[in-house]
């Protein structure tokens, strides 16, 4: 789809470089906290600024970045789903610009409707903190983790999927030429957005696509999807076995070893499904790096 280096790390890491829910899966969410790279909009080292623009699809904020020669030269359409820092993150916007430079019209939606993750910048510890300072640091980390958990509880598929679906429908109308040129929509998701990139590559009941809760699915069981031509997910979180077993479109996943936010037992089941179903896929796993690095 593009240079693999563009899609391996959190945008917060890329931008800092000088250049370019099912019960059976509950263990995946226990005792794990989203990484700093997925929650903190750190300043990039060479002070790069976004070149795209904020716009709206209906009532949803979107960041749009286009190749410099578009529309005179054709481009494909890419949906970029962010980690917790959201659409207004400078680093996420710079990341969108990097994909645009590779020949994509990039649509990055506010999938949180203004409710991006709580600021979780680490508190710089003293070289030799006393007992009181150590206690304060631990208390701050505990409070931060609690706020993140509360935020995650609000970001349910029932809330997020309708937002993404609305953006996809609007993008099909607004950039029909790019959709036609790419023979569909491409999608890249980081961390929180990685789960939804995987879901968009799958086939689901029409109620799930509409964002209805599972208890309402008996109202209509027509299958829809995939909604994208191909997807990529970097250090995805909250992914379930059902998400992976539903995949039908080509999929790339970039993961890290021993990631409590994407456990091997779930990834392993997904790997088996993709292989036995003859679905085009690529899974890269990196060792000795934290989630999102």
Automatic annotation (TrEMBL):
GO terms, molecular function: hydrolase activity
Region called Disordered, residue ranges: 1-54
Q: Identify one Pfam family in the record.
A: DLH
Pinpoint the Dienelactone hydrolase domain residues.
62-292
Alphabetized InterPro entries for the sequence: AB_hydrolase_fold (IPR029058), Dienelactn_hydro (IPR002925)
SUPFAM superfamilies membership = alpha/beta-Hydrolases
Q: Which Gene3D superfamilies match?
A: alpha/beta hydrolase
What is the protein's name according to its record? Dienelactone hydrolase domain-containing protein
Taxonomic source organism:
Vermiconidia calcicola
């Amino acid at each position: 789809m593009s240079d693999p280096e563009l899609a391996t790390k959190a945008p917060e890491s890329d931008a800092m470089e000088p250049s370019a829910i099912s019960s059976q899966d509950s263990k995946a969410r226990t005792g794990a906290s989203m990484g700093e790279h997925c929650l903190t909009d750190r300043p990039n080292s060479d002070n790069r600024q976004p070149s795209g623009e904020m716009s709206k699809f209906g009532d949803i904020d979107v960041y749009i970045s286009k190749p410099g020669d578009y529309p005179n030269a054709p481009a494909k359409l890419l949906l970029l789903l962010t980690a917790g820092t959201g659409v207004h993150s400078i680093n996420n916007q710079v990341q969108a610009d990097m994909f645009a430079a590779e020949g994509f019209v990039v649509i990055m939606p506010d999938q949180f409707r203004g409710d991006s993750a709580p600021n979780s910048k680490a508190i710089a510890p003293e070289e030799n903190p006393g007992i009181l300072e150590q206690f304060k640091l631990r208390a701050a980390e505990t409070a931060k983790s609690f706020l993140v958990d509360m935020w995650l509880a609000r970001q349910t598929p029932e809330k997020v999927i309708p937002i993404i679906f609305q953006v996809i429908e609007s993008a099909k109308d607004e950039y029909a030429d790019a959709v036609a040129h790419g023979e569909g929509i491409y999608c890249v998701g980081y961390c929180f957005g990685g789960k939804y990139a995987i879901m968009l590559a799958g086939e689901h009941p029409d109620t799930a696509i509409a964002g209805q809760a599972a208890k309402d699915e008996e109202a209509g069981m027509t299958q829809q999807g995939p909604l994208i031509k191909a997807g990529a997910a970097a250090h995805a979180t909250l992914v379930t076995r059902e998400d992976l077993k539903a995949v039908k479109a080509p999929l790339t996943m970039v993961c890290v070893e021993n990631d409590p936010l994407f456990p091997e037992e779930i990834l392993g089941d997904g790997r088996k499904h993709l292989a036995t179903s003859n679905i085009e896929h690529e899974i890269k796993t990196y060792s000795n790096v934290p989630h999102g690095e």
